[in-house]
Predict the 3D structure of the following.
Amino acid sequence: MKTINRYIDHTILKPTTTLNEIKKLCMEAVEYNFAAVCVPPPFVRITSTFVGNTDTKVATVVGFPFGYAAIEAKVAETVMAILDGADEIDMVANIIAIKGGDWEFIEKEAATVLSLVHSKGKVLKIIIESGILLDEEIIKCCEIYGKLGVDFVKTSTGYAEKGATLEAVALMRKHLPANIQIKASGGIRTFAFAEALIAAGANRIGASASVQIMKESLAQS
């Protein structure tokens, strides 16, 4: 089993993020060899230079945090992010369409962005905001995204009232094909919780408390 650092997307997405905070995030990510850094779109280009040719990937968000941007807008954001050097795209699904049962739209949205992302050899994670969905809505998302072959289904933006839960991750794991990965994010602040989420089926952990999680991990090793 890989060590906890290789599960972590070291994240800062607040609207007041500064360049100094991005620089610090990247230095920590390289020091601890985290899987990725996840940064606001305007910082993707400079982040790519900060992490350089290390094993840490550059991730950014699209349609964040509410997901209700038009498909065309999400495509434009994705194009810009990839041009700026993003390796991974974390796109918020249209939650309005999910809650309204417009599954045709949800499939079209994902298929459109996925085609673009995969054509450039990049990774797509789709955020479903599991904390505000019914179980049957989570299951339907898993069926659609599993069929399309997205790289990850992700629990949360971290901006809803409820983030990642063991129950949501386990439900997603049960209803996703084995080759589709899960990213748990939202409220993950301890090594114990991160470990439990991984045990429930998470393949990646999105966290801003990544360094604290690492310190707790190292203290227990």
Notes: The chain has one domain: 4-220. The mean pLDDT is 97. Residues 63 and 69 are 6 Å apart (CA to CA).
